[in-house]
Amino acid sequence: MHTSEIFVGGQWRSPVSGETYATINPATEEVSAQVAKGDERDIDLAIQAARRAFDHGPWPRMAAAERSRILWKLADLITANLEEMARLESVNTGKTLFDSGKVELPFAAEVFRYYAGWTTKIHGETLNLRDGAFTFTLRQPLGVVGAIVPWNFPFLLASWKIAPALAAGNTMVLKPASLTPLTALRFAELTQEAGLPEGVFNVVPGPGSKAGMALVRHPGVDKVAFTGSTDVGKGIMREAAGSLKRVSLELGGKSPNVVFADADMEAALRGAMTGIFYNKGEVCAAGSRLLVEHRIHDEFVGKLVERVKGLKVGDPMDKTTRMGPVVSAQQLQTVLGYVEAGRREGATLATGGERLQVGDGRGYFVQPTVFTGVSNAMRIAREEIFGPVLSVIPFKDADDAIAQGNETFYGLAAAVWTRDVGKALRAARALRAGTVWINAYNLFDAALPFGGFKESGFGRELGQAGLDLYTEVKSVWVDLS
């Protein structure tokens, strides 16, 4: 793998500075790779390559069916190299090999297949407005797309941007998270194998403050697609305003997972576990606020804590492990800092809350943690922790559940557990969130749009809505008089 190089214009080359940096395996604290440290100069070169490929290259002018064939080939190559890609993802992030290889990489391949099917279905409309005129619309690619992705789902979230952008005929510069660039670099090799024309897809790893913001500010970029924290998203909006480029933002969350007394308790318990402990809670849509109806609160929490205590935390390469380490030493300190804040503000630590010693004692492992007696005024209920820390909040009735569920600046996701279909649908309408699961959690499909309300961002990824983010509508008026 060309980890010490950037991928620009279909070629591997050293970064302008010649500098590299180390990525760290969070399970062992050992160096996993030396990666090219791109900066503003590398971003400029990548944008120039993408601009040439869009303005003069074959990709936007290629038959839609041919673009479809190449996207489908990329999906096949992801599948053919799935074991290697999954291992790279787990080494970089600390997520279990099961999550990488059985869930996330297969989903990414499916995203490419889904959008491969869309290439031949992007069209405008003919409008019969008046005699003496032929009026119609065209739906065309935007141009050069700058994509910035986070470290929690490095390749999966990249696929949500790459596949629709390329399907629409755009060219792209990808800036992966500096902590987790390995699968993006490996995918760049796959684009060469798939026959993607030079300059259509470019990868520049490096620090967000330099490489990322250079991508946002550059006048040669027509759109920025960002997934990450709300604070960084606000900064991107400010910087993008200088050129009025298109922006879509998928940001943070503090999602309510609402369990009514009439819910299937066993299913709701599984959903509560999945909602917060999948990928060690490093999930933007994590069900980090568990709202439980007071009549079943104590029973439900008792059973939940018992399950949490039995959750196996350890080596992400071990097939029996259910939760790996958090992504970095900094993230470990952030999580433990929130645990301490919860204690200070009067929440009850029901289980967990400590750094966990696994094997030889190395690795950024933290115990899965549950707090009870939490109110929405506490930091652990207001702020996105991005770790395996659950806040349990009691509620009285449906109105109280909705009010407390919406008592947040965020609005990315929510879930409702009940056997009452009417109650579930009323709650789904009332909860201010871009996705509401009913009697489920963390289920996704390439055809179903995903995105946030409020400070969780705007724009939708996946589905037709995700494709629309990468197209421009043009009206054409032909005077026939």
Keywords:
Aldehyde Dehydrogenase, Chain A, domain 1, alpha/beta, 481 residues, seven-stranded mixed sheet, 20% strand, 2 domains, Aldehyde Dehydrogenase, Chain A, domain 2, 20 strands
Give a nutshell description of this structure:
Helices cover 38% and strands 20% of the residues.
User: What strand line-up does the widest sheet have?
Assistant: 14-15-16-13-12-17-18
Oligomeric state = single chain
CATH-defined fold name of the largest domain: Aldehyde Dehydrogenase, Chain A, domain 1
- Number of domain units: 2
Number of E-type strands: 20
Structural class category: alpha/beta
Secondary-structure map:
Blueprint: E1 6-8, E2 11-13, E3 20-25, E4 30-36, H1 40-55, H2 64-80, H3 82-93, H4 97-118, E5 126-127, E6 133-141, E7 144-148, H5 154-167, E8 171-175, H6 182-194, E9 201-203, H7 208-217, E10 223-227, H8 230-240, E11 246-250, E12 256-259, H9 265-277, E13 289-293, H10 297-309, H11 329-344, E14 348-351, E15 369-372, H12 379-382, E16 389-395, H13 398-405, E17 413-417, H14 421-430, E18 435-438, E19 457-458, H15 463-468, E20 471-479
Parallel strand pairs: 7-8, 7-10, 8-9, 10-11, 12-13, 12-17, 13-16, 15-16, 17-18
Antiparallel strand pairs: 1-2, 3-4, 5-6, 6-20, 11-19, 14-15
Helix pairs in contact: 1-7, 2-4, 2-6, 3-4, 4-5, 9-10
